[in-house]
């Protein structure tokens, strides 16, 4: 659902995919190959939201701000299921873990990773390539090259997803039983623990 608000219409690049069950309102700019998942609420009613090329905003995320503030997701930012971004700036190629809360005036540095269910309080500045976890969140270590390779590969899957969805997503009636010849889905990505162990 795309909504004009107070004269502002969202701008969505033709290569991006906004799921019909997401809500994008007002002064929102969505770049190339961006994926916006079902249940995401992106509210550019009081300020501006810029979601740059290659980002993904997953199911049930909320992006909003206080009046007059601009929220920016730099290129390839990866916002996990259920996360809240409120008035923050998310750096290039960052990962925000599931159900995390990123509060106003947070500056999340390039290629930083926020662990699931973390709370970044108002005004925190996280330098580039830091791993941040906890409630309240603390920097626990530097992000390694190995972690960035893993994160980047996962984000690349989401960057390919909009084109796949434009091509194949359609409403349908469900089958009543599973066909015997139903193909298996490809295993083209491993969770962090499995990916780390396979490279060691």
Automatic annotation (TrEMBL):
<dbReference type="InterPro" id="IPR011004">
    <property type="entry name" value="Trimer_LpxA-like_sf"/>
</dbReference>
<dbReference type="InterPro" id="IPR050484">
    <property type="entry name" value="Transf_Hexapept/Carb_Anhydrase"/>
</dbReference>
<feature type="compositionally biased region" description="Basic and acidic residues">
    <location>
        <begin position="174"/>
        <end position="183"/>
    </location>
</feature>
<protein>
    <submittedName>
        <fullName>Transferase hexapeptide repeat family protein</fullName>
    </submittedName>
</protein>
<dbReference type="GO" id="GO:0016740">
    <property type="term" value="F:transferase activity"/>
</dbReference>
<dbReference type="Pfam" id="PF00132">
    <property type="entry name" value="Hexapep"/>
</dbReference>
<keyword id="KW-0808">Transferase</keyword>
<dbReference type="InterPro" id="IPR001451">
    <property type="entry name" value="Hexapep"/>
</dbReference>
<feature type="region of interest" description="Disordered">
    <location>
        <begin position="174"/>
        <end position="200"/>
    </location>
</feature>
